């Protein structure tokens, strides 16, 4: 019995079918050995989540982040842009001052 099972008093194990379903949803092709490894690891995660669910958090205010919030975006600055001619000079094809591309819809 692992540490989490000792804390919870019960052992919650995912079934092999559940692990196969999760692998299918994630588009994973697993060997039998990997299925068993993931079954044990995912079960341990779920068991630990059960332990956390039982914690009394009434006295703790909800938080979205533990870090102070700050804006990391630079302020917008108006500055000259490239001319249309300079931009279109690199285009394989241009028409009426715009990029010309092949139609992809029928």
Determine the number of helices (DSSP H or I, runs of at least 4 residues).
4
Q: Which stretches are low in confidence, meaning pLDDT under 50 for 5 or more residues running?
A: none
**Major β-sheet, in short?**
2 strands, antiparallel
**On the 0-100 scale, what is the average pLDDT?**
86
Distance between termini? 62 Å
The CATH topology of the domain at 3-53 is: Histone, subunit A
SSE-based structural type: mainly alpha
The Rg value, from CA coordinates, equals 28 Å
Name of the top-level CATH class of the domain at 3-53: Mainly Alpha
- Per DSSP, what share of the residues sits in E-state strands of 2 or more residues? under 5%
Secondary-structure blueprint:
Layout: H1 3-8, H2 16-25, H3 32-53, H4 84-88, E1 94-95, E2 98-99
Antiparallel strand pairs: 1-2
Helix pairs in contact: 2-3
Describe the structure.
This protein is mostly helical and 106 residues long. The chain contains four helices and two strands. It has a two-stranded antiparallel sheet. Helix 2 packs across helix 3 (32-53). It has helices at residues 3-8, 16-25, 32-53, 84-88, and strands spanning 94-95, 98-99. The chain has a domain at 3-53: Histone, subunit A, CATH 1.10.20. The longest helix is centred in the middle third of the chain and has 22 residues, at 32-53.
Q: What are the key terms here?
A:
mainly alpha; two-stranded antiparallel sheet; 4 helices
């Amino acid at each position: 019995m692992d540490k989490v099972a000792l804390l919870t008093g019960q052992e919650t194990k995912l079934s092999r079918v559940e692990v196969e379903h999760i692998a299918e949803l994630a588009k994973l092709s697993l060997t039998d050995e990997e299925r068993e490894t993931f079954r044990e690891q995912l079960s341990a995660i779920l068991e630990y989540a059960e332990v956390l669910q039982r914690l009394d958090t009434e006295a703790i205010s909800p938080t979205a982040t533990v870090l102070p919030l700050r804006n990391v975006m630079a302020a917008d600055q108006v500055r000259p842009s490239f001319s249309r001619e300079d931009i279109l000079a690199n285009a394989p094809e241009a028409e009426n001052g715009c990029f010309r591309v092949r139609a992809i819809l029928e």
